[in-house]
Write a structure and sequence with these properties.
- The protein is α/β, with parallel strands linked by helices and 348 residues long.
- The protein has helices spanning 18-29, 45-50, 67-79, 165-174, 194-202, 299-317; strands spanning 2-14, 34-37, 55-56, 65-66, 84-86, 91-98, 101-106, 109-118, 124-127, 143-144, 157-161, 180-185, 206-209, 211-217, 224-229, 235-239, 242-245, 249-252, 263-264, 267-270, 281-283, 288-290.
- The strands form six sheets. Strands 1, 2, 5, 6, 7, 8 and 21 form a seven-stranded mixed sheet that branches. The protein has a five-stranded parallel sheet with strand order 10-17-11-12-13, with helices on one face. A three-stranded antiparallel sheet has the order 14-15-16, with no helix packed on it.
- The structure holds flavin-adenine dinucleotide.
- Flavin-adenine dinucleotide binds at residues 14-20, 37-40, 45-47, 50-51, 56, 58, 90-91, 119-125, 255-256, 285-286, 297-300, 302.
């Protein structure tokens, strides 16, 4: 369990979707010591989980940008001021110890922060689970929904279920560690990046399309699986040590419901300053709902709210601080500032 002891962050951003990434960037611009806690292994929230390969057409300045490319740019922008990013850490509890001192307990540790900005979107994403016989009983004993350590699969016979990016990427990675990898997918096409699918088909992974899992067997741990061809119904038994199920994610507000926040359905209620009912706790993006204002689930709306929430958080920490601190174009020393050109057009 990681504890941060006396470390006190200025801002803890909960969620690294587009809103949380933009909040981390803005907090950095305001010289606030920033922590970002994200339940998933990667940044990007809904974009990464649900539509990395889709083009987005309504983010200012980008007539069209691939979801994954937008996330890469946002992460680059958000990382430049040294924010601490912690992935694979779901925030389980948020407590106000006293105004200006919050305790955040995650699945991995405990952190202290003066303020928090809740950018949790639809909630933490959880894996869709399979309920075929044996899958529930043997979860954690050979049936996995996430990879914690690649080494866990060293020398093992692994079955991967799924045909999206997660399943394909893990097959490509884990065949280097496992003794053998079989991937089954219920369709005859993949919902993953075309280049990854090509690499998969050229790899030693045994790929079976139009196949589904029927049962997982084993007394104490997984020993065998039954799979079937969903066209012919023909069944096959495979000797397997581990099953990795990657069949998508679903959002769940989960622990946030127990933090004492005022909620409206799956939203956290905020006022026009993005303040929740808890002192020093703000909300922005898809999760935030302002009474009397129509909700728009847009990346652009999350950006605007993130900037405003950071401004109010800065003023909460330093009561004389201005909410609007000026323009980035007037700020010196930005990491990605272009090299100044001399009068000859050459670099100074
Ligand atoms: C298919 C689809 C297409 C879309 N197309 C567009 C489009 O073209 N243009 C557009 O503007 N918008 C689009 N949207 C909407 C857009 O994706 C959302 O408005 C945006 O992702 C909201 O960002 P967010 O950061 O507020 O929340 P999210 O993207 O949901 O991110 C929230 C993050 O918080 C994390 N989290 C939640 N709870 C916890 C916790 N307890 N601890 C730690 N982490 C936690 C989650 O894991 C997640 O990563 C689309 C949405 C979908 C589903």
């Amino acid at each position: 369990m990681r504890t941060t002891g006396a470390d006190l962050y200025d801002v803890a951003v909960i969620g690294a979707g587009p809103t949380g990434l933009y909040a981390a960037f803005y907090a950095g611009m305001r010289n606030l010591r920033t922590l970002v806690l994200e339940a998933l292994p990667r940044p990007g929230g809904q974009i990464t989980a649900l539509y990395p390969e889709k083009y987005i057409y309504d983010v200012g300045g980008y007539p069209a940008i691939l979801g994954r490319d937008l996330v890469a740019e946002l992460f680059k922008q958000a990382s430049q001021f040294g924010a601490d990013f912690r992935f694979n850490e779901r925030v389980e509890a948020l407590e106000v110890l006293e105004p200006g001192r919050l305790r955040l307990t995650t699945t991995e540790g405990v952190y202290l922060s003066r303020t928090a900005i809740l950018c949790a979107g639809l909630g933490a994403f959880e894996p869709n689970r399979l309920t075929v016989p044996g899958a529930v009983e043997l979860e954690g004993r050979g049936v996995h929904y996430a990879v914690r350590h690649r080494e866990d699969f060293l020398g093992r016979r692994l079955l991967i279920v799924g045909g999206g990016d997660t399943a394909v990427d893990w097959a490509l990675e884990l065949h280097r560690w496992a003794r053998e990898v079989t991937l089954i997918h219920r369709f005859d096409y993949f919902e993953a990046h075309a280049r990854s699918v090509q690499a998969l088909l050229e790899s030693p992974v045994n790929v079976l399309t139009r196949h589904e899992l029927k049962a997982v067997r084993g007394s104490d741990r997984v020993q065998e699986v039954v799979i079937y061809d969903n066209q012919s119904g023909a069944e096959k038994n495979l000797a397997i040590d581990d099953v990795l199920i990657c069949i998508g994610l679903k959002p769940n507000l989960g622990p946030i419901q127990r933090w004492g926040l005022r909620l409206d359905g799956r939203h956290v209620l905020v006022n026009s300053r993005l303040e929740t009912n808890l002192p020093g706790v703000y909300a922005a993006g898809d999760i935030a709902f302002q009474e009397g204002v129509e909700k728009m689930y847009l990346i652009a709306c999350g950006f605007a709210q993130a900037a405003l929430a950071v401004g109010y958080a800065a003023r909460f920490i330093h009561p004389k601080a201005r909410v609007f601190h000026g323009h980035s174009s007037q700020r010196k020393g930005m990491k990605y500032a272009p090299t100044p050109m001399g009068p000859t057009g050459k670099e100074d």
